[in-house]
Automatic annotation (TrEMBL):
Keyword Translocase among UniProt keywords: no
Location relative to the cell: Cell membrane
Protein name per its UniProtKB record: Oligopeptide transport ATP-binding protein OppD
PROSITE patterns: ABC_TRANSPORTER_1, ABC_TRANSPORTER_2
Family in the record: Belongs to the ABC transporter superfamily.
Gene Ontology cellular component terms for the protein in this record: plasma membrane
Chief localization: membrane
Source species of the chain: Lentilactobacillus parafarraginis F0439
Pfam families: ABC_tran, oligo_HPY
């Protein structure tokens, strides 16, 4: 059984191929940061759609531009230091055209955000109830009594065992897992259509990680929300995502359903990431290590596949000069033609033929 199917079976559910109800359409979006007076792209011509009722995972190593894409959607960049182009159509509104006032109407109400580090996202001096109520005071006309009832309802929803007690506590009195549940409660307080979760479980131990992912999945089902889950952890993706976008050096290099990405990965980067992931049935094998590093913004290759320097055994002629997305059907997209004859060095036989060619 392959890894993804193993996790699906563990979840005891069939994966749904959610292709309807698109409400976020990211069109040709680039985000550049000013470094020493020059702008460099951290996110480069990204096209991506999110549907209601689905979890879209964005996966890639550190420095690939995942968080920059998230903060671009959320409108969190300083216009003095950042250049953003393209269009982000969210329920008919181009987010990139909004001013701060416009964004404030949407953030917290229609788009909720869950950050990696719950401690820094919570105010240490305020009780949990007040912090959850804040977003309701800003975005709704609920009475104090209604807000309190909603706080208790939310704390129940995110799996807090004694909501009344927790509501009156301060962040430092809670465990890391409980704090992350509070962050999720704040993010979903106004039932947003879109939730962006940036490495929501990275700071937590494995058992708590699984519980938090369960909470996210339940919320997505109950609220019919679309969730963008940002992570470098393919295990988290396998357990949670309906669709996956693989990001490398600011670009989406492959996207598709979770089955397509796990069962039939195409781009050399996707295949390298999967190969570098511990396999349950291969515990004695050495882990594959992707050589080299994600390039810094100033050192981004100007042409060819950006991943090419990390697979130097593949000839330059195998890469497109300006790689484009290729549609493999049923929503499976891959950048550059280099996927067609890609192989790992240990897949070459004595005659120099790859396993791929032999099969
Ligand atoms: N404010 C900034 N100014 C200049 N460069 C930045 C800024 N923020 C991010 N970068 C650079 O942009 C690139 C993408 O960073 P980003 O944080 O989006 O990647 P990531 O995939 O989310 O990685 P991580 O998981 O480590 O956050 C990196 O090279 C990073 O150094």
């Amino acid at each position: 059984m392959n890894l993804h199917n193993y996790f699906l079976t563990k979840r005891g559910i069939e994966l749904t191929n959610a292709t309807t109800g698109q409400f976020l359409d990211i069109k040709d979006v680039s985000t550049a940061f000013k470094i020493d007076g020059v702008y460099y792209d951290a996110v480069s011509h990204v096209n991506l759609q999110v549907n209601h009722d689905e979890i879209l995972a964005i996966v890639g190593e550190s420095g690939c531009g995942k968080s920059t894409l998230a903060t671009t959607i959320m409108g969190l960049h300083d216009p003095e230091e950042t250049q953003i182009s393209g269009e982000i159509d969210f329920e008919g509104t181009d987010l990139l055209k909004l001013d701060e006032k416009g964004y404030n109407q949407i953030r917290g109400a229609k788009i909720g955000m869950i950050f990696q580090d719950p401690l820094s996202a919570l105010n240490p001096l305020k009780r949990i109830e007040d912090q959850i109520q804040e977003v309701m005071i800003y975005h709704t006309k609920m009475t104090e009594k209604q807000r309190h009832a909603r706080v208790i309802e939310l704390l129940n929803e995110v799996g807090i065992v004694d909501p009344e007690r927790t509501a009156h506590q301060f962040p430092h009195q809670l465990s890391g897992g409980m704090r992350q549940r509070i962050i999720i409660a704040i993010a979903i307080a106004c039932k947003p259509d879109l939730i962006i979760a940036d490495e929501p479980t990275t700071a937590l131990d494995v058992t708590i990680q699984a519980q938090i992912l369960d909470v996210l999945r339940d919320i997505q089902k109950e609220n019919h929300a679309g969730i963008i889950l940002i992570t470098h952890d393919l295990g988290v993706v396998a357990e949670t995502a309906d669709r996956v976008a693989v990001m490398y050096a600011g670009q989406i290099v492959e996207q598709g359903t979770a089955e397509q990405i796990f069962d039939n990965p195409k781009h050399p980067y996707t295949r390298s990431l999967l190969r570098s992931m511990p396999q349950r049935n291969n515990e004695t094998d050495e882990l594959y290590v992707i050589s080299g590093m994600v390039p810094s913004l100033q050192k981004m290759p100007k042409q060819g596949d950006r991943f090419a320097p990390r697979i130097p055994w593949i000839p330059t002629s195998a890469h497109e000069v300006h790689p484009t997305m290729h549609d493999l059907g049923e929503g499976h997209l891959v950048r550059c033609t280099c996927y067609q004859n890609f192989y790992f060095p240990d897949q070459v036989n004595e005659k120099g033929a790859t396993e791929h060619e032999l099969n």
